[in-house]
Amino acid sequence: MGCGKKCFYCAIVVAVVAWIFNAYPWQWWKREYNIVPPVSYDGRIRFDLDNLQTPCSEDEIQTIVEKAYNENQRIRVVADGHSWSLIAQTQDIMVSLANYTGVDFKNQNPNEVTVNAGTSLRNISLELDKNNLAMIQLGSVAGQSIAGAISTGTHGTGLTIGNIASLVTKLRFISGTGQIVELAKGDERFEAAQVNIGLFGVLSKVTIKVKPKFNLKETRTRHKLDWCIENLSKLASDSDYVYVKFWVEFQNNFCILFQTGETTDNITGAPSDILSFLTYYAFAVVTKITYVIPSKTKFLMLLVNWIGFGFNTVRVDNSYLILNDYFELPVHQEGEILVDFKDSVEALEAVRDVVIEGNFPVNYITEVRFVAGDEIWLSPSYNMPSGICAITLTIYAPSETVERYFTAVYDATKKLNARFHWGKHFYAKRDELNLLYPKMADFEELRLEYDPKGIFINDFIRDTFKFKED
Ligand SMILES: Cc1cc2nc3c(=O)[nH]c(=O)nc-3n(C[C@H](O)[C@H](O)[C@H](O)COP(=O)(O)OP(=O)(O)OC[C@H]3O[C@@H](n4cnc5c(N)ncnc54)[C@H](O)[C@@H]3O)c2cc1C
């Protein structure tokens, strides 16, 4: 074979490998520079790095906000770009708090720490661990900043544990007029600010509840989906396992059940590096193939799920290593509906019907988790005393299929008053939000007080909330 031909074939192999292994700019940028990537996690939002500001102190944040206020410019904070909705889209000025990080342990209450808003959940867990403390709750990944996680109502699983915002006891932000505002539990405004999607100002510090370091034991078992649906409520409320979640595969009618509770048993570590590696790459390869050949989804998902989850496993590890997934999910798209816990089964059946009847090539696991209710105005768990069930829809497909799938599920679960994750594919508009969030008008009033010129409003926010003055 001639040299030119060899180069040509090599180039093709490199391109395919890069594609399969998700060599997205987001990932290499994060690794190389550990600062804001030029695109969001899934590449949907391109950030204009020419307008990037990276303050190192609260004073510097204040100066940026005051300048924007005086010059009628718009600001959006971009944290880790881990949102699929366009909430982090920037207009004039893009602020990153990647240089404003750190955990302060000098609190009066030993079970609280104060964190600079740019700190990632991963670094918080590592710092807490060094000090024999731990986060009470975490989601499936740890790259997000504490501010980003709070702003969108990010959650993990556990019917008795609220989302991460509900663990906050005090927060400080620089409002749209450049004022430093501090709100603490007990103040009604605090409940408005806990999940405010970056609309009250730039969060600078949050105080969160933590607990002494603990280990978790996770038992992973494989079942028929019908069995899981039948036992869903009982399993989710089992007090021996505080953190319960399901990974559902509709096409092949099975589900993986994770039952996790505190333990004093010895640490066993992750299932195995080989298994994590195989699971990641099995998903990476299958999603790429089914992206172009969707008709093979059912068969290939059966294969990948046997590779990844064919055996039941038990493992014990440090809490944060169990609460975060043990393997990375290749880049994909996510939507999420959150319903009253009593409607969990109906919601799951509605999603199953959409997938099967619509023949959607769902080439990831659909995740079912549970979250305690809260009083936070814009939290999807607002005023749900028995807790909520969150169904995460994941898929890697052309954008038209993604949108058709997510809107079909959102429509099918409207009758259950399903709310949506602020950080995932989001289509609801103000009329619907008024019904879903009874405090929406009060929220708007406060927002106007904190940001009278609307400097934190981007196109997505304008279109979604349709604030009166806009
Ligand atoms: C792979 C992956 C896994 C995920 N897993 C989960 C999960 O398990 N559970 C779950 O609930 N969600 C999950 N999410 C969603 C994710 O947690 C949220 O979208 C989260 O908001 C992203 O955080 P971020 O730090 O990247 O913030 P960004 O996406 O950059 O920003 C989110 C919002 O917060 C605002 N914001 C950020 N920092 C500040 C600040 N300092 N002041 C004011 N506003 C600010 C931004 O303006 C924006 O509106 C996941 C996302 C991905 C990509």
Listed once per kind, the bound small molecules are: flavin-adenine dinucleotide
**Which value, in Å, is the CA radius of gyration?**
22 Å
- Judged by helices, strands and strand pairing, the structural class is alpha+beta
Per CATH, the class of the largest domain reads: Alpha Beta
Number of distinct helices: 15
Average pLDDT for all residues: 91
Overall body shape: globular
In short:
With 470 residues, the protein is α+β, with helices and mostly antiparallel strands.
Would you mind describing this structure in some detail?
The chain has 470 residues and is α+β, with helices and mostly antiparallel strands. It has 3 domains: 3-95, Uridine Diphospho-n-acetylenolpyruvylglucosamine Reductase, domain 2; 103-213, Uridine Diphospho-n-acetylenolpyruvylglucosamine Reductase, domain 3; 216-420, FAD-linked oxidases, C-terminal domain (Vanillyl-alcohol Oxidase, Chain A, domain 3), CATH 3.40.462.10. 36% of the residues lie in helices and 21% in strands. The chain has 15 helices and 17 strands. The protein has helices at 3-20, 25-33, 58-70, 121-130, 146-152, 188-193, 225-236, 273-292, 297-309, 319-323, 344-358, 399-412, 430-436, 440-450, 459-465; strands spanning 52-53, 75-77, 93-95, 103-104, 112-116, 133-135, 168-175, 180-184, 201-212, 215-224, 243-249, 254-263, 313-318, 333-340, 366-371, 388-395, 419-420. The strands form 3 sheets. An 8-stranded antiparallel beta sheet has the order 13-10-12-11-15-16-14-17. Strands 4, 5, 6, 7, 8 and 9 form a 6-stranded antiparallel beta sheet that branches. The radius of gyration is 22 Å and the shape is globular. The protein starts with a helix and ends in a 5-residue tail after the last helix. 46% of the residues are buried. The mean pLDDT is 91. The structure holds flavin-adenine dinucleotide. The site of flavin-adenine dinucleotide has 32 residues, from strand 2, helix 5 and strand 9.
